[in-house]
Amino acid sequence: MTEEFDIVICGGGLVGASVAIALGDLPLKIALVEAVPPEQSGESSFDERSIALSRSSKAILQTLGVWPELESDAWPIDQIHVSEKGRFGTALLDAQQQGVNHLGHVIKSRILGPGLWRALNEKPAITVFCPARVVEVSRQGESSAVTLDSGEQLTAKLLVVADGARSAIREQLGVSANNRSYEQAAIIGNVQVDKKHAGHVAYERFTGEGPLAVLPGADGVYTFVLTRETAQVDATMALEDEAMLELLQETFGFRLGRFRQIGKRFSYPLYLTKTEALTAPGAVIIGNAAHGLHPVAGQGFNLGLRDAATLAELIAEQVAEGVFGSRNEALQAAYAEWRARDQRNVVAFTDGLIRGFGAGGRAAGALRGIGLLGFDVLPAAKRELARHTMGVGGRSTKLARGLLLDGSS
Questions:
Q1: Per-residue pLDDT tens for 47-89?
Q2: Which residues contact 352 (CB under 8 A, 6 or more apart)?
Q3: By residue range, what is the domain housing residue 149?
Q4: How many structural domains comprise the chain?
């Protein structure tokens, strides 16, 4: 039996769920296919990883009606402090200086993911197939045919590929991706700091062994993201709690006082993924299926959410004009043109940070110190980086501006 849909979204992670919600009030029939139920947090994207939500991402979630439920579990970022271990010079981005109340927020993936799923389950237009896997994708005339592992078959006027950096569906569509391993892994966990030092400051500290991000949270419980070379990961993960606390303290310093307690740690390998195309016949590729980033600047989900907001807006415009499903090539071209620059800039920014701060030698280190000092006293440069960090540079979507997508003409 074959069931017909206007849109089939392959992947119900954070970005896939977001685009489903954004499309959920349009007069369309939508299917979302996800392999792992969201409640299985240990096996999906809804785990202990913390996400640094940009100001733009918070605005999109607010427009989608998701933010009110999430806000109590999100912690604001009012400042971002950047430094390099063993070098002079620091840089500080400050919300007040940028004329905003917050630069962004921190939230756990395991909070954000189920929150998104509760919202999409309230959309009658969305049919969820979960747990289910897409085993085959093919073209049938002007439609895409999707076969699930259950044997069910779905057809779609448009296929949205959101199944992650190792996207099997992207490969089936004949779109290749360049994957470059950083030969590193991120080790993440929670750490308790002295409460008198706790606040709303996010820290990015670069070291010779890799960057360390320390993100603020409630009651002095911060989240750390420690990057280590692949060969060091097993030994680092095997450290006893006291030894791990000492490593974090020695790496970070005492800006937050003494680290007192540490939680369970997780690790995952780091890759840079860049797809060679954002579209395929009858399909659009979004989120990590299009771009997988190093977590150094916390831009991965923010970039993917802008993908989702852009695609939803373009689909809504076609629905309003009564041409959705008949002008896929125009939709795909508009999407690729809109998203290419933002994706290229963010990839270059995050990869450049790793390459730049990874360069060895006294001269390189001294230049970085001078650069951080110079940056800290140049308002124009700070404004530009702050806009980039807040996700408000470039062309803004309707959802980021608080405008709903209703598909009406």
A1: 467 888 999 999 999 999 999 999 999 999 999 888 888 765 6
A2: none
A3: 2-47+108-179+271-373
A4: 1
